[in-house]
Amino acid sequence: MALFAGQISAQTPSNLQLSDSLVLKSVLIQATRAGKNSPVPHSNFSAAKIAQYNQGQDIPFLLSSVPSLVESSDAGAGVGYTGMRIRGADPTRVNVTINGIPLNDAESQGVFWVNLPDLASSAAEIQVQRGVGTAVNGPGAFGANVNIDLSKIEPEAFGVLSSTLGSFELRRYNARFGTGLLRKHLSLSGRLSGIQSEGYIDRASANMRSWHLNAAWVDDRQSLQVHALSGQEITYQAWYGLPAQYLEVDSLRTYNPAGNERPGAPYENEVDNYTQRHYLLHYKRRLNEQLYLQVNGHYTRGFGYFEQYKANQLLANYQLQGDTLLQRSDLVRRRWLDNHFYGTSVNLRWTPGRAEFLFGGAWSRYQGKHFGQVIWAQSLPQLSSDQRYYDNDADKDDANVFVKAELPLRGGQRAFAELQLRHVAYSFLGFDNELRNVTQSANFWFFNPKLGYSLPVGEKGKYSVFLGVGRREPNRDDFTQSSPQSRPRPEHLYNLETGYQFGNERVQLNANLYGMYYKDQLILDGRINDVGAFIRTNVPQSYRAGIELEANWQPLQRLSLNANAALSRNKVLEFTEYRDNWDTGGQDAIAYRNTDLAFSPNVVARAEAAYLLLKKQRSQLTLSVSAKHVGAQYLDNTSNKNTRLDAFTFADARLIWRFETRHGEQLMLLGALNNVFNALYASNGWTYRFRSEGYDPRPDDPYARAEQGGVYNLTGFFPQASRNGSVTLEFRF
Fold first, then answer.
1. Domain for residue 10, yes or no?
2. Tens digit of each residue's pLDDT (9 = 90 or more) over 427-439
3. Cα→Cα distances 61→54, 65, 663, Å
4. Which of 95, 291, 477, 554 is the most buried (most CB within 10 A)?
5. How far apart are CA 155 and CA 170, in angstroms?
6. CA-to-CA distance for 538 and 561, rounded, in angstroms?
7. How many domains in the chain?
């Protein structure tokens, strides 16, 4: 066994002398993945690279080095509810797949990493594409694609035991195993994980468990892989953010308002309790030397609720009968989500010579039940919790067909083309034009073409250009909280990427210029629609444009340096804010031109240095230090400095010791110190602005702040953890 070898990829020779058939069968045909010649800007994270950062934090924090990426955590420490924005695009606009199967929620279109804790420990590779990318499955990508690959087979048997202890009572336990290839055909592997944390924010605890089992069969012409993944999480809610008046008060910086509606002590069970299970099947067959067929099937089962203590509630709003129609009571409610998501896809790859063609299609169906129950009411001691005070079902079908082609041209040039036709049919409970809640449906057809070209420059360089179009439907709230008259239109994205790459044994350089022009992008503008809900509104024109620079340099055998920087402009050309007027009960309209898109910093930069302190025959010690800077960003689209996240910079340090015994067992000790200089910053937030000449809300509401001319805002922030550390011990045998 090679010293400190990472996971063996299907293309890597080993002492088992892997045959061509195994190379074929252990790598899936993934229509969502960009190849090495792709003109799409992308970053690849191998299993070995992931392991250097993986201490139980969610995937958004492990991908911190991706250009233009900003990560955030509700609980502050990267465990529990986390998210990321790439080029300012929020999580609903980042397409995520596992082995090419959509992970985004079909209705909200977001990804909830908390549902599959420690997923990174199962990944052989994670690829992040920036821009519209090559995704053909799931919701359209308007900022990035993240493809998580679980399909690689390790030909040798292994076992791994790992444990992490850290600040905020972080505990992670992880066990993994693999049989290698049994009789050259059968492989079994698995993972069992547990993660606990009390969080940086008060009571923002997380108790999560997950497992992953994988069985694979290979022979000379075909392969079959079956994956089963399960995650269960119980997290105390930290969704509301820190009141703006507390942000600069050190003793209140970790205050959590969740659960505080109960008199006395906070309600102990103000939690999110959810279970999600995924089942994936991949069958691949080599029809001949140039033709490969793959058929995929998937099924996801999700169920759970979040529980809340609500004070002084009107019982009639919960369809509960009190002594009078206006009777109020403290109560505890649960809001449930019970869903099924399943589907299939087919890919046919044809490789005549150096060309490659990929034909395929996919179909999926989502069935979701949303309902609420009151499990306790102070004034109704005999309450039955079986009654539902709302019940809302939804069905969504998503189908597409596509063709991709990558063609060699003269002089090493290559051309890329992709054509996709997608159809979405959504049935849901929403308001009609008479404001009655009735079942409705919406249907959409989207055509998404993409073209690319690459040209070698000298022996080590390459120039590439990519043009892609993406179109996507509104999300669940856009449908259910509107009528057909006020329902927003689909969004359109036109994406241009042009890049230059250079690389030799010591230096790799990448420069990428991009433009992302949006038509009818959906943003919150404060408007209330005809059913009384705050809505997202289509703005006619907006754009993101910038340059992303990456450099990797190894000036010395023991020293490696890498850095990236993203400089951008992110603008709404014209829109109108509708601001509530508490004095009149109406709304004031304020027109804006050329303002910044919300949550879109103009600068995101990161640098890292790694130095090999000690290298002996069986051990090595490496120190790495990194720093990341995120520029100022606005909480809405008005460019109002009163509701802005200040720029922040933080630094991390890691010390990694690796040792291999004479019998081949490997030991890794990873010590991390995060936010070394104890920067106090918030990476996420929300705001609501209004006019109130006759009432100052600040004494009554800690979220309230004054602006000018009788204008106030309610603003919440999500502070990230102060200086913290962790230690991971991993034993591989």
1. no
2. 988 766 666 777 8
3. 9, 9, 35
4. 95
5. 33
6. 43
7. 1
C-beta separation of 732 from 121 below 8 A: no
Angle, CA 318 vertex, CA 315 and CA 320 arms, to 5°: 60
User: How far is residue 724 CA from its own chain's centroid?
Assistant: 24
CB-CB neighbours of 11 under 10 Å:
10
H-helix or E-strand containing 715? strand 711-719
Classify burial at 594, counting beta carbons within 10 Å of its beta carbon; exposed 0-12, middle 13-18, buried 19 or more. exposed
Domain containing residue 431: 20-732
Q: Are 471 and 435 in contact (CB under 8 A)?
A: no
- Domain membership of residue 293 (yes or no) is yes
Query: From the CB of residue 483, how many other CB atoms can be counted at a distance below 10 Å?
Result: 17
Half-sphere exposure of 248 (CA within 13 A, CB side): 2
CA distance 178 to 159: 6
519 within some domain: yes
Closest CA to 146 of 126, 117, 131, 132: 126
**Cα separation of 315 and 311, whole Å?**
11
Provide the β-strand partners of residue 490: none
Q: How does residue 250 score in pLDDT terms, banded at 50, 70 and 90?
A: very high
DSSP reduced 3-state for 276: strand
Residue 11 covered by a domain: no
Angstrom CA distances, 706 to 235, 535, 579, 710, stand at 33, 25, 15, 7
Q: What is the pTM of this model?
A: 0.93
Residues 478, 470: Cα–Cα separation, whole Å: 19
pLDDT at 432: 62
CATH of the domain at 649: 2.40.170.20
Single-letter residue type at 440: Q
Q: Are strands 682-691 and 559-581 parallel, antiparallel or unpaired?
A: parallel
- Per-residue model confidence as pLDDT tens digits over 339-365: 999 999 999 999 998 999 999 999 999
The letter for the amino acid at 360 is G
